[in-house]
TrEMBL record:
<keyword id="KW-0464">Manganese</keyword>
<protein>
    <recommendedName>
        <fullName>tRNA-splicing ligase RtcB</fullName>
        <ecNumber>6.5.1.-</ecNumber>
    </recommendedName>
</protein>
<dbReference type="InterPro" id="IPR036025">
    <property type="entry name" value="RtcB-like_sf"/>
</dbReference>
<dbReference type="Pfam" id="PF01139">
    <property type="entry name" value="RtcB"/>
</dbReference>
<comment type="subunit">
    <text>Monomer.</text>
</comment>
<keyword id="KW-0692">RNA repair</keyword>
<dbReference type="GO" id="GO:0170057">
    <property type="term" value="F:RNA ligase (GTP) activity"/>
</dbReference>
<dbReference type="InterPro" id="IPR001233">
    <property type="entry name" value="RtcB"/>
</dbReference>
<keyword id="KW-0436">Ligase</keyword>
<keyword id="KW-0479">Metal-binding</keyword>
<keyword id="KW-0547">Nucleotide-binding</keyword>
<keyword id="KW-0342">GTP-binding</keyword>
<comment type="similarity">
    <text>Belongs to the RtcB family.</text>
</comment>
Length: 476
DNA sequence: ATGTGC
C-alpha cells in the first residue's frame, strides 16, 4: 500500500482515516517496508471491515497482514452487540481456531542433534499429515458431541494428555457455550476420521531449539533457556471448521437483506450478534474451537509417545496453546469504559498483558506467551503480551511471517525436493507427504519473520522473548 | 485453510 495515503501515528502505526461509509478509522501496524509491501487488497479489506455496523474504535491490521477472504489475514475487529454489532464467518476464517501450541521437552540441543533424522522419521510415521489425512481415532455420534462441547478437557478425560495441560490452554482447554446442534451433519462427518491429524498448507509440527533470548527474565518465567529443545504444533479444526465456515458464509450472505445489511463485499458476510443466525454461528464456531483444542491435544499425546520411544528421558509439559482464528467475547476498556465486545482475530494472536486474570497463575506476572510460527527455514518466536496492546489492538499481535507471494507463484519458483535438500544442508530435516506443499511453503515465499516481530514489538503489541530455530519439521 | 471449485 502507498504510504502517502496513510497518516503516520508512530514508528510502526499508520492510520487510514475515516471516509465515506467507514464507521471507524483503520490502523495498520508495521514498519515502512512491511506496510509498503502489503497488498492494496489488504488495505481495501481493512477499510471494508471499518464499514461494518457496531465496530468499535478501529479496524486493525497486524504487521504480518495480507489479503484474505473478506477480512484481511492479520485483521482484528471488535464489535458491540448493543450497537448493532455483527459476527462474521469470514472474519474468523475457514480454519477456525487454527493455532499454535508449544511443548517443553526437558532436552538440550546436544540430546537431539545425533538423532534428528530418527526423530524426524518417527514423528512423520506417527503424526498423520497432509490433505485428507486420517487418524487412528473414529468418533461415534456421542463422542463427536462430547468432543465439540469438551475440547481439550474431553481429550484429557479420554486419556490423551494430563490435567496439568489444561491450565496452559486458552479457556482452560474448553470453550464454553459451544453448540454442536448448530454444526451441520456434513461438518461432523468430515471430521469423523480427522481427529489427531495435522492437515496441510502452512500447518506443521517442529522440533526447535531455543536460540537468541531477547528478554531473559520473561524467558525464565516461561521456562525457556538457550539451547533448550521445544516442540511447536501449528494446526486447527480441519474439515469441521472449514465446513462450518462454508455453511455459515452461505447462510450469512442469504440472510443479509433480512438483517438490513448492505455488504460492501459478499465475502464480508456477517450477521448481527443479536440475531438467531449470529448466535447459531457463535455456537458452531465455539464447537470448532473445541475441535481444534482437542485436535492439538491428541497430537500432543502422539508426540509424547514418539519421544518416549526415541528419547525416553524427555518430559513434555505444555508451555502454552493459543489460537489465532477466533471470535471471542471479551471485556475491554474503550474510552475509559469497560465494555463487553466480540473480538475477531483472523491470523492474529490474542496477547493478554501481565496480570490478566485469564492467564495461568504461573505465567500471569510475565504476560501471555504469544506463539509465532515462522516459515520452515526461518524459525519461530515466543513473544509476551503487553499492557499497551489492549489499547492498541484489543490485546492482539501478529501470528506468523505472512506470505510474501502466492502459493501458485511459490510452486513455480521452487521444487519441493530442492527445498528439502537445501534445508537439510542447514541442519533442518523436513518430512512431508507433499513435495508441492513444501514448494508452496518454501522459506522464500514468506516475509522475514524477524522483521514482523520487530515491528510488533516496536508498535507495542507484544514483547520479544526468544527466537526458536527449527531442527525437525513435519509438514502437512 | 479445505474431500482446492458454481
Amino acid at each position: 500500500m502507498e504510504l502517502k495515503d496513510l497518516i503516520r501515528r508512530g514508528p510502526c502505526a499508520w492510520e487510514i482515516p475515516m471516509r465515506g461509509p467507514m464507521k471507524v478509522p483503520a490502523v495498520v501496524y508495521g514498519n515502512e517496508a512491511l506496510v509498503r509491501e502489503m497488498d492494496d487488497k489488504a488495505r481495501e479489506q481493512a477499510v471494508n471491515v471499518a464499514c461494518l455496523p457496531g465496530i468499535v474504535r478501529a479496524s486493525y491490521v497486524m504487521p504480518d497482514g495480507h489479503w484474505g477472504y473478506g477480512f484481511p489475514i492479520g485483521g482484528v475487529a471488535a464489535f458491540d452487540a448493543d450497537q448493532g454489532g455483527v459476527v462474521s464467518a469470514g472474519g474468523v476464517g475457514f480454519d477456525v481456531s487454527c493455532g499454535v501450541r508449544c511443548l517443553h521437552t526437558g532436552l538440550r540441543r546436544g540430546d537431539v542433534l545425533g538423532v534428528q533424522q530418527k526423530l524426524a522419521d518417527a514423528l512423520f510415521a506417527d503424526i498423520p499429515a497432509g490433505l485428507g489425512s486420517q487418524g487412528a481415532i473414529r468418533l461415534n455420534h456421542q463422542e463427536m458431541h462430547d468432543m465439540l462441547v469438551g475440547g481439550a478437557k474431553w481429550a484429557v478425560r479420554k486419556g490423551w494428555g494430563s490435567e496439568a495441560d489444561l491450565d496452559r490452554i486458552e479457556e482452560g482447554g474448553q470453550m464454553l457455550h459451544a453448540k454442536p446442534g448448530f454444526v451441520s451433519d456434513l461438518a461432523k462427518t468430515r471430521q469423523r476420521p480427522e481427529m489427531g491429524t495435522l492437515g496441510s498448507g502452512n500447518h506443521y509440527l517442529e522440533v526447535q531449539e531455543v536460540g537468541e533470548l531477547h528478554d531473559a527474565a520473561i524467558a525464565d518465567a516461561f521456562g525457556l533457556h538457550g539451547g533448550d529443545i521445544v516442540v511447536m504444533i501449528h494446526c486447527g479444526s480441519r474439515g469441521l471448521g472449514h465446513q462450518i465456515g462454508t455453511d455459515y458464509l452461505k447462510r450469512m450472505v442469504e440472510a443479509a437483506p433480512s438483517h438490513g445489511l448492505v455488504l460492501p463485499d459478499r465475502e464480508l458476510a456477517c450477521a448481527p450478534l443479536r440475531s438467531e443466525l449470529g448466535q447459531q454461528y457463535l455456537g458452531a464456531m465455539r464447537a470448532a474451537i473445541n475441535c481444534a483444542l482437542a485436535n492439538r491435544q491428541i497430537l500432543t499425546h502422539l508426540v509424547r509417545a514418539v519421544f518416549a520411544r526415541v528419547l525416553p528421558q524427555a518430559r513434555l509439559p505444555l508451555l502454552y496453546d493459543v489460537s489465532h482464528n477466533t471470535c471471542k467475547q471479551e471485556q475491554h476498556v474503550v474510552d475509559g469504559r469497560r465494555r463487553e465486545l466480540f473480538v475477531h482475530r483472523k491470523g492474529a494472536t490474542r496477547a493478554f498483558g501481565p496480570g490478566h486474570p485469564d492467564l495461568p497463575a504461573a505465567l500471569r506476572a510475565a504476560g501471555q506467551p504469544v506463539l509465532i510460527g515462522g516459515s520452515m527455514g526461518t524459525g519461530s518466536y515466543v513473544l509476551a503480551g503487553t499492557q499497551a496492546s489492549e489499547g492498541l489492538a484489543f490485546s492482539s499481535a501478529c501470528h506468523g511471517a505472512g506470505r510474501a507471494m502466492s502459493r501458485h507463484q511459490a510452486s513455480k519458483n521452487w521444487q519441493g525436493r530442492q527445498v528439502v535438500d537445501e534445508l537439510a544442508r542447514q541442519g533442518i530435516f523436513v518430512r512431508s507427504p507433499s513435495p508441492r506443499g513444501v514448494a508452496e511453503e518454501a522459506p522464500g515465499a514468506y516475509k522475514d519473520v524477524a522483521a514482523v516481530v520487530d515491528a510488533a514489538e516496536q508498535a507495542g503489541l507484544a514483547r520479544k522473548v526468544a527466537r526458536l530455530r527449527p531442527l525437525v519439521c513435519v509438514k502437512g
